[in-house]
């Protein structure tokens, strides 16, 4: 059982050589919520460009989608609870 209430999974963040592509589903969600402009440039509120660059070079093994995802995609997911010391706390709720 995880330490943080309301989370189902503790997923370690791992570095990757090359950033992973963001899925079309995630891109449409980012654009609709105003976190990505029409040209596809990310604009996450409260995240500096330097931190965003680092986030793009990180990945997780997503327990909900059962595949490797870039951390940016995980960060904007509705299941994302928090990230502490390289561990992502995921709610683990089923998604569409």
UniProtKB/TrEMBL annotation:
This is Uncharacterized protein. It comes from the Archaea.
């Amino acid at each position: 059982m995880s330490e943080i209430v309301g989370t189902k999974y503790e997923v370690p963040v791992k570095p990757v050589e090359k950033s992973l592509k963001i899925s079309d589903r995630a891109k449409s969600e980012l654009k609709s919520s105003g976190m990505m402009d029409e040209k596809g440039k990310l604009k996450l509120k409260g995240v500096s460009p330097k931190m965003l660059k680092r986030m793009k070079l990180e990945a997780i093994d997503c327990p909900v989608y059962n595949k490797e995802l870039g951390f940016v995609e995980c960060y904007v997911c509705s299941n994302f609870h928090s990230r502490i010391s390289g561990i992502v706390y995921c709610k683990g709720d089923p998604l569409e």
